[in-house]
Amino acid sequence: MKLSILLIAAIALVPAATWNCRSQLPTEPINQLSAGEAQEGWKLLFDGKDLNGWRSYRKPTAPDHGWEVKDGVLTCVGGAHGGDIITEQKFTDFDLRWEWRVPAGANNGIKYLVTEDRPSAPGHEYQMIDDAIVADKPKETTASFYDVLAPGPDKKLKPVGEWNHSRVLVKGNHVEHWLNGKRVLTYELGSPELLEAISKSKFKNSKGFADKITGPILLTEHHDEASFRNIKILELPAK
């Protein structure tokens, strides 16, 4: 009788142990749209295999070095000088989402409302950085509109080396920055508040920097390592 009870107890523990093990594994495949996302019109900007759909900034082809695709992850190789890359497609109103991670001390960013006619200030940058190296510069921390607007103080950034989830929403003149499920920054293109903030930034002499334009998405190359996955976008009706 005691043996039977012990056997039943051991069997009962197996599913729990199996569940605990499985809970540490990814629940969904990366770089794939769900059926619901596909039906809504989401598009992958990175297929997990290569740089199809991307090219170097102000160049007709993709870079031949400095960007690496491995195990479904797109990585900007630190110190390789691969240059910025942009999507071949341009966007006006959109919901852009992606996952990213950087090692300690690293700096990177995604730019939107990008133009190739103003290389000194190609677009608005959603900053992605190890906040420890810019702790005294809020306008340069993660999820800021780089050097223009700081994110809110209640943002939740994961430790370096872990994956963060970010989002940029552009609808009409309204722009939002999100980090790990929380909206941390909003602003209005062309507004007096934005113009004033730009006038105090390094972009103060960049003509048209506060304007709404149609342009590609840009991944920056700041000489540091940065990795990306699940980059997807939903084009929104023009407002």
What do these coordinates show?
This protein is of the alpha+beta class. The protein has a single domain (30-235), classed as Jelly Rolls (Sandwich), CATH 2.60.120. The chain has helices at residues 2-22, 35-40, 192-199, and strands spanning 43-44, 54-56, 67-70, 73-76, 85-87, 94-101, 107-112, 124-129, 164-171, 174-179, 182-188, 218-219, 226-235. The strands form two sheets. Strands 1, 3, 4, 6, 9, 10, 11 and 13 form an eight-stranded antiparallel beta sheet that branches. Strands 2-5-12-7-8 form a five-stranded antiparallel beta sheet, with no helix packed on it. A hairpin with a 2-residue loop joins strand 10 (174-179) and strand 11 (182-188).
